[in-house]
Amino acid sequence: MKPLIGISTYLEESTAWGVWELPAALLPAGYPRLVQRSGGTAVMLPPDDPEAAASVVARLDGVVIAGGPDVQPVRYGAETDPRTGPPALERDAWELALIEAALASGTPLLGICRGMQLLNVALGGTLVQHVDGHSSPVVGSFGSHAVKPVPFTRYGELVPEEFAVPTHHHQTVDRLGAGLTVSAFAADGTVEAVELPDPRPVLGVQWHPEMGEDTRVMSWLVRAASDRGAAVRAASLQAASEPDGRVGGGAARQ
């Protein structure tokens, strides 16, 4: 059984659909394709009632928080920089709730670009609202730069070499959230990956793996999701076979 990976989506007020202009929950196809190439089944998680996040995450094997608009600075106690873009309030609320539910339940979690930034905010960290040189000068395209792993981290084990990644962002981590470890840097010192230590299956990357060919980061998530899904199903079967302390449905021996 392929692990079920939920991916958060954009929510746009007006999008062209043939002759129609309608609101739409959207996700660039690179995200589900990367999940599929990595051995998982992808499902979309458009913004919803944050109170529903825990029950949604309970039905998933893994969660991806996708890239997108800037996080609202009030979420981390900052004034808005003029270069910070308009917030996506519904996404902020929903995705923070998804992150909190994944952390609470031990569900494997991968944050991509905005997703990494939001993970840091969820754990009490702050963001640099603008950095230069991490986006392509050509509108609508991705840039590329090398990312250097930190040895003996999860990311450093997944990708032990310095590696060029597809990138497009202007914000990044400032003060680290509680428990997070930096696991990759750019040449200018920009934080490029963060993670929680083992055994917590949580990783955030600043770049866009869905725009490249390398599957190592997503394959890690899918493997972790598969392992957790198998453990949850085994525990459920065990509990079903031993109700109320009985073995195999029979009466417990005195």
Commentary on this structure:
This protein has 254 residues and is of the alpha/beta class. The chain has one domain: Class I glutamine amidotransferase (GATase) domain (Rossmann fold), CATH 3.40.50. The chain has 6 helices and 13 strands. It has helices at 30-37, 53-57, 89-105, 114-122, 154-158, 216-241, and strands at residues 4-8, 10-17, 20-26, 41-45, 62-65, 109-112, 127-128, 143-149, 163-167, 172-173, 181-186, 191-195, 202-205. The strands form 3 sheets. The chain has a 9-stranded mixed sheet, sandwiched between helices. Strand 11 (181-186) and strand 12 form a beta hairpin. Helix 3 crosses helix 4. The longest helix has 26 residues, at 216-241. It starts with a strand and ends in a 13-residue tail after the last helix. The relative contact order is 0.16.
Q: Which terms would index this structure?
A:
single chain, 254 residues, alpha/beta, Rossmann fold, 9-stranded mixed beta sheet, two-stranded antiparallel sheet, 6 helices, globular, disordered C terminus
Determine the CATH superfamily: Class I glutamine amidotransferase (GATase) domain
Total helix count? 6
Report the average pLDDT across residues.
91
| Residue windows where pLDDT falls under 50 for at least 5 positions | 247-254
Number of strands: 13
Structural class: alpha/beta
CATH architecture: 3-Layer(aba) Sandwich
Percentage of β-strand residues: 25-35%
Distance between the termini: 40 Å
Given this structure, which CATH class is correct?
Alpha Beta
According to CATH, the fold-level topology is Rossmann fold
Radius of gyration (CA) equals: 20 Å
* Domain unit count: 1
Inertia-based shape? globular
- Mind summarizing the main beta sheet? 9 strands, mixed
Lateral arrangement of strands in the main beta sheet = 4-1-5-6-13-12-11-8-9
H-E order: EEEHEHEHEHEEHEEEEEH
Helical content class: 25-40%
